[in-house]
Amino acid sequence: MPYLVRERLFIGNISDAADILGNGSSEITHVLSLLSSASISFFTEWRGSLSIPTKEIRKVYVGSSGVDDDSGSCSKSSLSSDKLLYAMEYAGKDLKMVRMAVPIRDMESENLLDYLDVCLDFIEESRKEGSVLVHCFAGVSRSAAIITAYLMRSERLSQEDALESLRESCESVSPNDGFLEQLKMFEEMGFKVDHASPIYKRFRLKVLGDSYNRGEKIDSSNFGADPGLPEAVASPEKGAYPDENRNPIPAFRCKKCRRLVALQENVVDHIPGEGETCFGWHKRSGNPYGKPVEFDCSSIFVEPLRWMKAVEEGALEGKLSCVHCDARLGYFNWSGIQCSCGSWITPAFQLHKSRVDISTV
Ligand SMILES: [Zn+2]
Ligand SMILES: [Zn+2]
Q1: Nearest ligand to residue 258 Cα
Q2: Is position 74 annotated as part of the catalytic site?
Q3: 289-326 pLDDT, tens per residue?
Q4: Which residue out of 74, 136, 278, 341 is catalytically annotated?
Q5: Helix ranges (DSSP H) in the chain
Q6: pTM higher than 0.85, yes or no?
Q7: Whose CA, among 18, 131, 143, 290, lies 20 to 30 Å from 339?
């Protein structure tokens, strides 16, 4: 039996969903399925005797979903653009129910963040029209993570308070640690997935590092646009011409030949002095002198950019050289590089401040 979380909002497992889709329900009108496959065949593979009729409404892929088209490279989602974001279909007895299926695996490394917007919006809309069941396989991790995020956004609750509140309805919920971490980021970004936020940029880089470590091919579609090419700055296909009246954008150029190598939006900030070699008394909260410790970072770290041919070739580490004059600009290492301030950045795409000039575009 599904558990009631809020008015018109239920959490359940796969057998709750199978029962509702197979036999109909006097109450549930919408189903949000969070399973490793979006296809309804997942149910028949799980229990051969089941037969659930469906009629497709639409399938939305990451690249066509509109989540990518704000402006420039900093607004990219961390999902590759050919990935299915969700499938929407009429389902169940007399095709009376609307099912949204989102392919998410219950793994700590799974990208939950980039599915939140579509899931939370679906829950929101469904509750206006009827009642929604949010389910995964066991009803413990994925569905709980999504409902926690929903409660966070709709009731402005911290991750801890939202989860605590959900536990009052359903004791057994327990999102995996990777999901909890991402829900914390969601809270820190103000209950939205802000692609321009440093928190999101670090997350995006970590997702990319995870896929590299799994041996997946990292092609340049995952990289930021080359700011040295005219179309990258203007992005004409996306209609994102820079606003004439806007403040100049800080940019980094090769010191030797002045070629543009990175924009401010490509920079992935880190907190100076935090990381593996950082001792307790350096932490922001635990500084015994009550004043911030001054750190000097001799490098900037950026997202991988399309001019970084050595990265595209798949090496674990290597030099980053200017595409125009071949001057050495920095170094990259998928396993991480330690900044002069002590912080570890993983993966790292590093430009030495001594090799680049800061100017504007
Ligand atoms: Zn640093
Ligand atoms: Zn150069």
Answers
A1: 2
A2: no
A3: 444 455 689 999 999 999 999 998 889 999 999 999 99
A4: 136
A5: 14-23, 41-46, 113-129, 142-155, 159-169, 177-188, 198-213, 230-234, 309-312
A6: no
A7: 290
